[in-house]
Amino acid sequence: MKREDAAAITFGHAFDRLYDYCRACGYQGWDNFDGLNSALFRNSPLYRSPLLRLAWTQFFKRSPVNFRGVTGVPKGYNPKGVALFVTGLVAKGKLDEAGQLVRLLLGMHCSGYSGISWGYNFDWQSRNFLTPVGTPNAVTTVFVSNAMLDFHAATGAESALDAALGGCRFLLDHLVLFEDGTTMCFGYMPGNTTRVHNVNMLSAALLARVARLTGNRGYLEKSRKAMRYSVKAMRPDYSWAYGESPFQQFIDSFHTGFNLVSLKRWMQFAEEQTWEKELRKGYQYYLDHFWLHDGCPKYYHDSLYPIDIHCSAQGILTCLELAGYCEESLPLAEQIARWAVEHMQDETGYFYYQKYRAFTNKIPYIRWSQAWMFCALSQLTA
After folding, report:
1. Alpha-carbon torsion (133, 134, 140, 143), positive or negative
2. CA dihedral in degrees (295, 296, 297, 300; nearest 10)?
3. Which of 91, 141, 181, 295 has the highest local Cβ count within 10 Å?
4. Residue 168 and residue 115 in contact, taking contact as beta carbons nearer than 8 Å
């Protein structure tokens, strides 16, 4: 049997096991940030304290023991996770099932904003503020809009195209933090002024995709200005800090992958090679700094732990997307997938969340773990 045939069988079997698991769950489940959905905590006076809300959220995120059942955290549909499932189902030609999830997403959008937008299905407490459930954000809206475009490309569904166009209107009407004659920057959600590069670049790539599809030159110019802003923020070694605030100066694996894929897609949709050098150099940095020899992912450029399944999934997607830029790409994508299947896939089909030196967090998070690996393996085996 040829090597590529054996790999296809191995990864196809891994995808099938995950697909069966996710279908049995109805594509819904828990999230690593959903602690504040606890009925026990929400109905107690403790919920009124921002400090206790933050501590509760972080405890649920970090604990390898799943307390969600006993504290009343329900399983639910996460719009970003559902979008990743749609993209994966379209890649596998399962269009009827993808259509069911598209209709679900169309009924889950946020209200009170122009265009159309999506957020998370849980309250989220940061160090500075509480984000109520359903607050729209750029990243979720971009991933849902791209899933809609994937479905539209496969089926011609006009409702899906209209949804993606509405997502672009939301970004431009509510999330532009800064704009001058040559650059601009998108924010994460209304009222948040933090400048984060993966948010900005994901938004730019979506606008360029829609501009290519519709001929909207205004969208293309806005996308070019946003992409220019974040490309200029590359460090001398061609890496990106996560964001611009002092506490956001870390360099991590999957956000770097987001940036690289967004930059590659922008040049593809814009039919320009403006930042070819930056993309090649940035991709080489990614290959050199985030992977062990066996395909195990490093979370940060200078630190292994936590070993996170999200990094594996984005690694597969990044290597597939940028396969034309390095001959190592496809072998590495397979190596990353093989390591994830061997070390992170449960016998029931789902993927574990994180590994630490002393223990493995095996909680089956639907968005962070299953949806991402579903999308990655679907592309690898399509």
Report:
1. positive
2. -120
3. 141
4. yes
Kindly provide the residue ranges of all beta strands, DSSP E only, lying in 47-143, ordered along the sequence: 124-125, 130-131
Torsion of CA 349, 369, 251, 188, to 10 degrees: 160
Question: In this structure, how many other beta carbons lie within 10 angstroms of the beta carbon of residue 348?
Answer: 11
Fold assignment, 11-381: Glycosyltransferase (1.50.10)
* Structural domain boundaries in the chain: 11-381
Residue type (1 letter), 202: L
Residue carrying the six token digits 């946020």: 110
Q: To the nearest 5 percent, what fractions of the chain are helix, strand and coil?
A: 60, 10, 35
pLDDT digits (tens, 9 = 90+) for 29-73: 999 999 999 999 999 999 999 999 999 999 999 999 999 999 999
Q: The pTM is what?
A: 0.95
DSSP letters for 171-203: HHHH-EEEE-SS-EEE-SSTT----BHHHHHHH
Q: What is the pLDDT of residues 269-318, one digit of tens each?
A: 999 999 999 999 999 999 999 999 999 999 999 999 999 999 999 999 99
